[in-house]
Amino acid sequence: MYSVILSRLNKQRLYWICQIGGWSLYGIANLIGFSYTRAITQNLLIGEIFQVGFYFFSTHLLRLHIKRRDWFSLAWNRLLPRLVVATFILSFTNSTINYILVTGISSRPTTDLVALIIVSMIVYFLWVLIYFMFHYFESYRKSLQFEAAMHEIELNNLKSQLNPHFIFNALNSIRALVDENPSKSKDAITQLSNILRNSLAIDKKQLVDFTDEIRTVRDYLALESIRFEERLKTDIRIHPDSEMYKVPPMMIQTLVENGIKHGVSNLKKGGKIEITTDVVDSMFVIRIRNSGKYLNGSTDTSGYGLDNTRKRLKLIYGDAASFNIDNEDKNTVLTEIKIPQHSPDTDGNVDGLIQNETI
Amino acid sequence: MRTLIIDDERLARKELTNLLNSFDEIEIIGEAVDADDAFEKINSFTPDLIFLDIQMPGKTGFELLESLEKVPRVIFTTAYDEFALKAFDFNALDYLLKPIQPERLAESINKIVTAAEEADESAGASDESKLTGNDQVFVKDGDKCWFVRLSNIRLFESDGNYIKVYFDNFKPMIHKSLNALDGRLDDRSFFRASRKHIINLSWVEIIEPWFNGGLMVQLKGGEKVEVSRRQAARFKDMMSL
After folding, report:
1. Residues of chain B with pLDDT > 90: what percent?
2. I need a labelling partner for B62 at 20 to 30 A (CA). Which of A25, A50, A65, B11 fits?
3. Chains A, B: CB pairs < 8 Å
4. Cβ–Cβ contacts within 10 Å for residue B205, how many?
């Protein structure tokens, strides 16, 4: 809100600077022009000051009229005739008064009226042109800015967050573990703090190295293994080229967490989480398999997290990335993400998103 | 109090057991690892108190409570289930957030022990197998839940495969048969007025003669229930006591 008011004040000030400065310059330029052909008399000076003053006030009135009638919202075919009529009325009035005054003062017509009107119309038209161009440029800039801001907000909303349920369950398990297995409980505290640190860091990053993300996932799975004990089995197989890729932070973690929450944790005997990565045609393929059944959209909150992931990928990569979740067989859900490689110049694109924050 | 711990995580059960060891009032009679296990153990051990985790594989803690005919005193344990606990805005509910604070645990136990002592005094000797006014049932309707003491229930009304339970300003439905319920209720407090109704005798306000030698009973909540001719004589007997 503050910045809106500020920019309005700035715009107001800019208008007055341009209006006063522009017309003064116009007058001075005119006088300099005259000085080559004739002597600058007092009458000529008064006439010129009057001219500039008239231009100044009449264009200001025109601006008020444009704003009041909201001519900015008109289409070209409706705007143009209005502008022509308006400039004609103004230049006719201006020139006629000028003509009468000049003839009155110097008692001889310097130029004929039609020429005066045409010249004046050109001047008005230039004013209108500058005024409208500035306006269109400004609104274009604003819409870009708006779009970038919306984009940013949307992306922030879609960011994965650590599930509080997980944090407190982990802490509860650790509490019990302190007596039973002190060294394991120490490890667990380290793992939990790694995850917390990462989840705080993601506010600042659009993408993170896959290596960092998978480290978080490993910590996460280690903690869940403490909680679920023999009910959770994990298997992670990473393609050696994976480290070249970046992924949206906490995305894999969220999907793995989904797999546990909606899959493994609902099975009395427990189940398995399997993560594999692959590089196919320079696309990075991440596959997460979990025991359980995927009920397509029909149930509860799972849809939200998946929808989020889909939107997030779309915002960051456009159509270049893909996301899929389905039942691979009767007891396994397969989640698959394909992410394009980031060569240094496409990296710039993604950085562009981050730069938007500073606008 | 004979206590059953219900949680699918071994460490969570262990942690709670450790915490409960310092309470003399609490005697842990067993542990259950999921809702089905708990269902069996509750019915065979009839614990006075259960510690119940809400999220478990298979059925949730709520589903377990719904399946029970007679619900022991319950303390919910949960890591972070604001959503699930919101269902209970209406009545005092005991829940503990994991990791459990020993002080909070002590408060909950004190509260429950006090309530149990009061209930014991007022109940006197009663037939153990029957449900009395002091027993509570768990009622869930849509996303709202209640623990209702039977003495607060004015009327059970059968409605298809469901029973409408009238108490306070609510009349949620439970999925049970009226005949089965009738057999379990203490007939000194509850009376089968007709094929469709069981009324709580302590809520009866007005009794009027009705057609065919039947009776029309108005309850303190305003509901009117017709007592069939066949039952009217028995009803008069009971009320004249």
Report:
1. 41
2. B11
3. 61
4. 12
